[in-house]
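Class, carefully examine what follows:
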Amino acid sequence: MTETLPPDDRRYVPTHQWARQVAPGRVEVGITAFAQDALGDVVFADLPKVGAVLVAGEPFMVIESVKTASDVHAPVAGTVVEVNEALRDNPESLNTDPYGAWLVRVEAAPDALATTGLLDSAAYAAAMG
């Protein structure tokens, strides 16, 4: 795991996903460097369909690596409005840039990132020990 704090422009959940507001009511979702380190070399991302409804805290897709397959949990509730199609051909970008290689963009409540349970960068880093 990286020794630096994760980016402070997003919020985190203990299941190692991040959420970043990219426009009013629009949230980008991805996995953290901790999750990427635990997975190892990613070989496949089973992206949801546009229109899928995410429930905060519930799995919404699977990422497969050479070591394992892992559920990805939604950090916020909302409806998928865009998926990162580049991951279909280049899932390993999650290994090289977990904070740049987003998974989905979600139409969410305007205050979705203020939801109880989402951690700021320092709190997430502290929780990871």
